[in-house]
Amino acid sequence: MGGVPHLCAVDIGRMRIGIVTPAPPDSRYGNRITALRWAKILSRLGNRVTISQTYDGKPYDLLIALHARRSHQSIMDFRRQNPEDPIIVTLTGTDLYRDIRTNHPAQKSMEIATKIVVLQPKAIEELQPSLRGKTCVIYQSVEARQVRTDTSDRAARRKASNSKASERFNGSFDVCVIGHLRAVKDPFRTALAARLLPDSSRIRVLQVGGEMTDTMAASARKEMRLNQRYLWLGEQPRWRVGRILAKSSLCVLSSRMEGGANVLSEAIVGSVPILASRIDGNVGILGADYPGYFEVGNTKQLARLLTRVETSPEYLAELRERIKNLASLFSPEREQKAWSDLVGELYD
To answer: Which of 181, 212, 233, 259 ranks highest by number of CB atoms within 10 Å?
Structure first.
């Protein structure tokens, strides 16, 4: 099974589209955020869009599945019930850099897919040559946020100001780490690097993201007790995450595996300089010669880069200039056109 099914005539601007993502409703997981943004784009193009965790059995004109492995059963169910209708499979970081190499359901999902979507161009290198022709890159767009202050934001800032970290680092050089506390994100790498900084450093690490396990939460609380430079803010509303990012002097992405992180796009559009682990998911967006990489898990190397960022205005300006040149990749207009073009190709 595979290839492109025969497609009946459909009014592309009036399609019934189902989006399947394993991320639960009301969660702030990256796949859910992506699904919500795509639903908005496709609805803006005139289509009726439904998001669900698994295929709900409805006769959609198009199914978009995020995650080749975890959405495999939904892909199979849709194909059995709708043998002539197209399926777009979006590959996540764990798909690309782990599952598609050995996991048969993930491989089968790609074979069945009419089209495959990846979030950065280097991802295509991970695919078998037979799959590359039906694969396209769609960068994750970021809409400009309006700065917002309300009572809940002020309360959060008062709470943070009462911490020992804030007392010591009044006027601090804030470094944000944004993402759920998952092993694949290597979430405490920046905190560990901050422990190695000299006493004169004003760096404070602000970690934003909910715990995935009780063990992760315990680790974050322990790190706050041991590390005066570290503050875990937990899960936050998206608008507040945007505020924290915008007010930070630097964003660190320390992941071991990424397909194309939302926070990377957001930092680029917000002109917040970035230090990132040298993995394909980051290199595919920032470029091979980006000057802000550290090797995965290398705490000492990250600490040296943090010191350089804090003490060298020239280096910080270089990082900011490099990401400034990438910002146009993540415009909402570009992403909407990419989806319009892709859906149109299904019916050429």
So the answer is: 259
Q: Which residue in this structure is represented by tokens 């917040």?
A: 272
pLDDT recorded at residue 74: 97
Q: Are 199 and 309 part of one and the same domain?
A: yes
Q: In what order do the strands lie in the sheet with 203-208?
A: 230-234, 203-208, 173-178, 250-253, 274-277, 293-294
- End-to-end C-alpha distance for the chain, whole angstroms: 21
The amino acid at 297: G
One DSSP character per residue, 286-327 reads: H-TT-S-EE-TT-HHHHHHHHHHHHH-HHHHHHHHHHHHTTG
Task: List, in order, residues 6 or more apart from 112 with CB less than 8 Å away.
Answer: 1, 2, 75, 76, 79, 87, 89
- So what's the pLDDT on residue 149? 35
Q: For the chain, give the number of residues.
A: 348
Q: Give the CATH number for residue 133.
A: 3.40.50.2000
Q: Which helix (H) or strand (E) holds 64?
A: strand 62-66
Residues 271 and 335 in one domain: no
The pLDDT value given to residue 259:
87
The two three-digit tokens of residue 240, written as one number: 């507040």
Q: Are strands 87-90 and 62-66 parallel, antiparallel or unpaired?
A: parallel
What is the per-residue pLDDT for 169? 53
Question: What are the pLDDT digits (tens) for 315-332?
Answer: 999 999 999 999 999 999
Q: Which residues of the chain have pLDDT under 70?
A: 1-13, 144-170, 348
Total-model pTM: 0.84
Tokens of 42: 């496709």
pLDDT for the residue numbered 55: 96
Number of structural domains (the chain) is 2
- The distance of Cα 78 from the centroid of its chain, to the nearest Å, equals 26
Q: Does some domain include residue 146?
A: no
Tokens 């943004």 identify what position?
37
